[in-house]
Amino acid sequence: MSGQDPKFVKGAFAKIADRYVMTNHVLSMGTDILWRKKVGRIVQAWNPERVLDVATGTGDLALEIQRKCPDAKVLGSDFCPEMLAHAEESGVQETQVADAMNLPFDDESFDLVTVAFGLRNMENWEGALREMSRVIQVGGRLLVLDFSQPRGILKKPYGFYLNRVLPKIAGLMTGEGEAYQYLAGSIGEFPFGKEMLRLFEKAGLSECECELLSGGIASIYTGLKS
């Protein structure tokens, strides 16, 4: 299954790295913080020892996992050094420049791999899931937090906000409206719900589940390496 142009994505995120966190909080009206906190609670219940946060960006999810699981060793990876610089400054324990399509880790190196709002930007979604599954030990888990598409009464107003309002606000805040115009388009193309769960299963994961957030604006997907 197809994905995004890695050169464009890397360049776009390098340009917006300095204002990425604040812009996201404004555009989501702080809801993205609540979504990550929910993921943190889920992860806390699993009590992992070795966590890889792929496409960690500025490290928001890695930091939340560190707070909830202080005994876990958390590594944040990203193919954009500009983003990782912010993650390091924020206090992520360990970072490494790495392409999610070719992770520089041995098979079964982690008991949990997470990715928040990063899978959508990868070159090949199915391939990325297979690669993340490869580095998870048997009995470990994969968790993906990403945008999806709401149904019902939220569908039209959300579509209007996503395609018309969000790129303009983001453009004013970052000076990089093109990057956020891409964001809107990428959400429309991205598989969600049952389609995403099928990709999890193709990656060799079982007990795959989807939890909708905020009426389906985002979703949490989980799977077990068995």
Task: Describe the overall structure.
The protein has 226 residues and is of the alpha/beta class. The protein has one domain: 3-Layer(aba) Sandwich (Rossmann fold). 47% of the residues lie in helices and 23% in strands. The chain contains 9 helices and 7 strands. Strands 3-2-1-4-5-7-6 form a 7-stranded mixed beta sheet, sandwiched between helices. A hairpin with a 4-residue loop joins strand 6 (205-213) and strand 7. The chain starts with 5 loop residues before the first helix and ends with a strand.
Please report which band the strand proportion falls in: under 5%, 5-15%, 15-25%, 25-35%, 35-45% or over 45%: 15-25%
User: Would you state the CATH class?
Assistant: Alpha Beta
Strand order of the largest sheet: 3-2-1-4-5-7-6
Based on DSSP secondary structure assignment, what is the total number of beta strands?
7
Average pLDDT, all residues: 86
Largest sheet: 7 strands, mixed
- Category from helices, strands and their pairing: alpha/beta
Radius of gyration: 16 Å
Kindly report the name of the CATH homologous superfamily. Answer: Vaccinia Virus protein VP39
Q: Which architecture per CATH?
A: 3-Layer(aba) Sandwich
In short:
The chain contains nine helices and seven strands. With 226 residues, it is of the alpha/beta class. Helix 3 (31-46) crosses helix 4 and helix 7 packs antiparallel against helix 8.
